[in-house]
């Protein structure tokens, strides 16, 4: 086997500098979720819209009200409790995690 000829230090340095390697790979930002700002205060206007919408529905949950009117779920739950006390809707079934409401029969007539 033939002996390899040693390259000079300068040639080795030039080879290392002129490599075909590109810039270092950077991590991507990934997918970012669009921020949705929910409403946390209730105006009379919004309350009347919810009252009208809820009166027509056969089944009402806090998620349904929150998603339709862009409300925080806690705020939607408080609105439903308020409307239940007023007699606009009545509580059909519920437990610690979820409560279902329905329009009152007395309101429809």
UniProtKB/TrEMBL annotation:
Keywords tagged on the record: Ribonucleoprotein, Ribosomal protein
PANTHER family: 40S RIBOSOMAL PROTEIN S25
Bias (Basic and acidic residues) ranges: 1-13
Region (Disordered): 1-34
InterPro entries: Ribosomal_eS25
Family: Belongs to the eukaryotic ribosomal protein eS25 family.
Short name of any one Pfam family annotated for the protein: Ribosomal_S25
The species this protein was found in: Encephalitozoon romaleae (strain SJ-2008)
Gene3D superfamilies, A to Z: 3.30.63.20
Domain of life, per lineage: Eukaryota
GO cellular component: ribonucleoprotein complex; ribosome
Protein name per Swiss-Prot or TrEMBL: 40S ribosomal protein S25
Keyword Ribosomal protein in annotation: yes
């Amino acid at each position: 086997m033939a002996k390899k000829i040693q390259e000079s230090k300068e040639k080795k340095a030039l080879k290392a500098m002129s490599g075909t390697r590109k810039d270092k790979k950077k991590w991507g930002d990934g997918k970012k979720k669009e921020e949705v700002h929910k409403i946390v205060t209730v105006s009379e206007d919004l309350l009347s819209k919810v009252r009208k919408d809820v009166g027509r529905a056969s089944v009402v949950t806090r998620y349904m009200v929150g998603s339709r009117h862009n409300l925080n779920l806690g705020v939607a739950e408080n609105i439903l409790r308020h409307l239940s006390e007023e007699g606009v809707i009545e509580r059909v079934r519920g437990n610690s995690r979820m409560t279902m409401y329905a329009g009152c029969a007395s309101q429809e007539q």
